[in-house]
Each structure stands twice: as C-alpha cells, then as structure tokens.
Amino acid sequence: MDIYIKDVIKAKGLQLQQVAERIGYKSLPSFYRQINSPESISMKTLLKIADSVGCKVNDFFFPPSEKIVNRNNFLAIVKYNGELKEVTSVEELEKIVGDLKKEEK
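The line above is the sequence of HTH cro/C1-type domain-containing protein; the predicted structure tokens follow.
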C-alpha cells in the first residue's frame, strides 16, 4: 500500500522537520523512518501528523494530485480487488457491495 505523507506535507507548504517537531519527534531521521514504513505507522501517529498539517488521515492514502475536490460530504476508503479505492458516494459504495455479493455466489 502506498502512503503519501511526504507529498501531503509538501503540498501544504511545510517541511518534514517542522512537522516532526510539531508532533514531538526529537530527530528528523526517526520521523523519516516512521513515515517511510507505512506497514508499521500507527493510527495515533497518522492522526497527529494530519492534525499538525491541517488535513484528514485519508488524504495520506491518495496522491495530492488525484484528490477529488467535491466529496459531497461522503468518503469511504475501500480495499476492493486488492486495491484501495476512494469512494465518494453512497451509490458507488452500493455498486461495490453489489459486485462483491455477485462474486460470492
């Protein structure tokens, strides 16, 4: 799974060092190792980073250039067929659920 923490930080006009200091890291290398290990980063750390840069945790899972501007107040992240998908409507989510039900039969 790809994670785009560095890209989001850069898109917000911040430096890694600034964010590391804001969330209590003593050194940039330890913060850098953490954000480069998506399989071991905790939700608590993701929440701290998101809060410090002014974004949502789900923003880290999609490249900033691929973000949908109008999410219509609905957002779900679904792992479907081995890929993470950003679902922005109930209808789209219902379609995925319907497809999954068909596959089970």
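Note on the example: The mean pLDDT is 84. The radius of gyration is 16 Å.
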